[in-house]
Amino acid sequence: MHSPKEEQGEPLKRSFSEANSDPPDWMVLDDNETAKEEDPSSSSKPKDFNPRGYQLQVYEVAKGRNIIAVLDTGVGKTMIAVMLIKDFVQAIESTESKKLIIFLAPTVHLVNQQFEYVKDHTSLEVEQYYGAKGVDEWTLDCWEKETKEHDVLVMTPQILLDALRKAFLSLEMVSLMIIDECHRATGNHPYAKIMKEFYHKSNNKPKIFGMTASPVVSKGVLSSNNCDGQMSELECVLDSLIYTIEDRTEMEACVPSAKESCRFFDPAQFSSLDLKAKVEASWLKTDASLSNLQSSLQTSYKGMDDKLKNLRKRLSNDHAKVLHCLDNLGLICAYEAVNICLENILDTTEESKAYRESVLQYKNFLEEVQCRIGESLPLGDKNFLNTGFDYLKAVDLGYISPKLHELLQLFQSFGETRQVLCLIFVERIITAKVIERFAKKVSCLSHFMVSYMTGSNTSVDSLAPKMQKETLESFRSGKVNLLFTTDVVEEGIHVPNCCYVIRFDLPKTVRSYVQSRGRARQNNSEFIMMLERGNVKQRNQLYDIIRSEYSMTNSAIKRDPDSDPCLLKDHTFEETNVFIVDATGASVTADSAVSLIHKYCGKLPGDKYYTPKPNFQFTSSEGLYKCKLTLPVNAAVQTIVGPLSRNSHLAKQLVCLEACKQLHQMGALDDHLTPSIEEPSENACISKGKDSGAGAGAGTTKRKELHGTTCIQALCGSWGEKSDDAVFFAYKFDFKCNIITVVYSGFVLLIESKLADDVGNTEMDLFLIGKMVKASVSSCGQVYLNAEQMVKAKRFQEFFFNGLFGKLFVGSKSSGAPREFLLRDKTSSLWSPSHMYLLLPLEDNSTDELRIHWPGITACTLAAEFLNKNSLLGTEQSDDDGSNPSLNSTGSPVTYCKETNIIRFANSSVDANSLRNTVVLAIHTGRIYCIIEAVSDKTAESSFAETVDTVSSEFATFYEYFYKKYNIVLKHPGQPLMLLKQSHNPHNLLVNFNDE
Prior knowledge:
Domain Helicase ATP-binding: 58-233
Strand content: 15-25%
Keywords: ATP-binding, Endonuclease, Hydrolase, Magnesium, Metal-binding, Nuclease, Nucleotide-binding, RNA-binding
Domain PAZ: 901-996
CATH superfamily of the largest domain: P-loop containing nucleotide triphosphate hydrolases
Number of strands: 30
Domain Helicase C-terminal: 409-572
CATH class of the largest domain: Alpha Beta
CATH architecture of the largest domain: 3-Layer(aba) Sandwich
Strand order of the largest sheet: 3-4-2-5-6-1-7
Largest sheet: 7 strands, parallel
Domain Dicer dsRNA-binding fold: 593-683
Number of domains: 6
Radius of gyration: 38 Å
């Protein structure tokens, strides 16, 4: 295909409508040359290639029907895919509606690789998609934009599956779907789900082109019948026929084949039974201790149970890692494994005391194991593997295993060249990490750059995707010579200069064998498998795999080229348990419903102290299971009970499917079955700098969010209806500000239940505007309150906290209900058994002695009694003259006398000099305020507009303001006005918003 005409220097990429041109002008290029291609930035001209005979043969068959191309690694399967893409350009151009080509690859590495290849070899608009790009959160508009602007979409299968389920994409939009490493289309893999849930139900199916070097994946010996069965299954799922090249002469001549050999090592002679017994004993002791703690906290602290369960699992995993390294690598690597585990210790700074102590026990276990191994390994110098180190003696002493020693000798056989690229496949992540560290300390390997690469799973030893990509690029470019890796790079990764592939641990399947061997791409490359001398099990395992490869190849060659893939096996892909949204076609199956429920809960508001998640409870009867699903309290639906099912797994799926239906009916899931929960945007966060006050501040209405609540067992009580005495457990709250001159009063929490020691004695930081307060909680034993104190304490709490949040009066003119004092009648309705506690002020915050501030409590009680006796105070009733008789018994204002300096309130008179920090209740708002000072030059007769800084006002004075707005006639208008500190809306003080 000729290149498009250049305009102003560089040619532009072409869309489908522009790509139909003259027949290709071929030049030779194969898959093994992709790493030698020009820098893409130098030119956007697509690279042409001259297909070999076997590639043209597969291509011609693929044009006519769906096929699974079974070809060895490195023979150019991707080139055939690109030929098909170019062929489809002409067909797509003739249609009125745009059709897409989707290229699926199972890993992000392969997506990156295939994206670059298609982009370099076509003039089409190509883009790649995977989870790390934030695709999971895209909307319909995002996908419509992508499909409009691009012709070929290269993505991981999970991305396509999610987009199909949400009805953002449909297979009717797709003309060709290329499936790389398609042998994965079994079981619950996204490949299989795409085909079963969507392809086989589609009326207008895209063409399928599958690519693999190993169409069977199971372990063990594979007979011809085994291979036929697995291949038939794969063909049925992919609606394609397996096709391979019978005459392999051209392939073998064109594509370099790695020389296979075995490297033998002696069995380990060093006995570490005593050391292993000590490690085992230490592990059992620590696990038993954590188990006891877990049992003691399970009923009261369910969240803690999960943490301890995970910690015990991690303890067990680390124990297994150390033993594995002892058995297979030797003392030095086992010691290094403990170091790695210690480096991954959890940060428990903000955790509870009980959990911190649990992690400390876990850490003590690792340090004890480290000490035990160190006793058997008296090598303090980190450079002990320098020149002259006796490796044979180290093997005898158990410092290194014979297997590791053989690997070192293999590396030494590479010589002093820095041009070596060697992949070493290991089974476990910990093996890759410890040998990588060990190799870096070996002086005779100092001329090699060493690294490791693992997958990005949930393991603590996993590698981040970005680091994986950087490591792989370093290996491709030759910056890294020895790369220790797990199976993450077995499939499809193209490193043309890789000259050695070593299987440090034998492959478990024929697929693993074929794929790892295929990474050796350079001419005269070697594929080396390490075997223990005399180990019959290992030998048989290897022979079984080699025989299975022959069975697989022969079965692929003998496939009937004219059979119908979906008639080969009696298959049905109907999904009975599925919910489909009529408006869009979005769907959720019983299988996908569980993850959707978890995603919905993950979108609900939460913080570092609370993670919204579903709770599942199972019951069984006569061999059938039923699941009860409880969603967080801020979910649209709370509890759903599923139908009876044959097993607990299906019961869980079906209750989640029913929950999805109900959440959609409630509008919590939109018509694309995505959570319709409004999340605060980044712009909603408090901005830094001087303008932060102009935005939505913490505690303001604009920052309001829906947060979940749950019943706190420790705050429950049964004394609400009682009028006699009571005994409480007391917990004192003290506050210390980082500004010395700022002093806060303490208070005491009285509850029926005793808190755990780590909860009842703790500290935390509270972040206020411009300052920080250290809050501490301490247990003060039990406190007895007599009947009179109980009455006062309850009335204080009713009055003070309702007044603090403006809830002392109920009803209003706008609501049609008369305004009344909340505490006028019985107040039993204000006390809930789930919130039965007293929060009382303390007299002195500087002493350790607990002294409740009874004078302050009594004052609140008297204020409440005054309001009850003066029932019309603060109501909207008035006499005929419009005045409120409770506020003006004489009907005329009283003159204020400055000489007396007395300020008169409705229920008392106070010296103006003693007002500071006095708590007052404003009748018109029903709120409690704190007095800062009396403003001597302002009275109710002062100008309203000047004082409140308004441009214009309908009120001339404060006297007039209260009269017209609240129907209140002030009795002492000549008194100074009070400067008050208002109470604030509750907001989160646990987060330092100043740093946002």
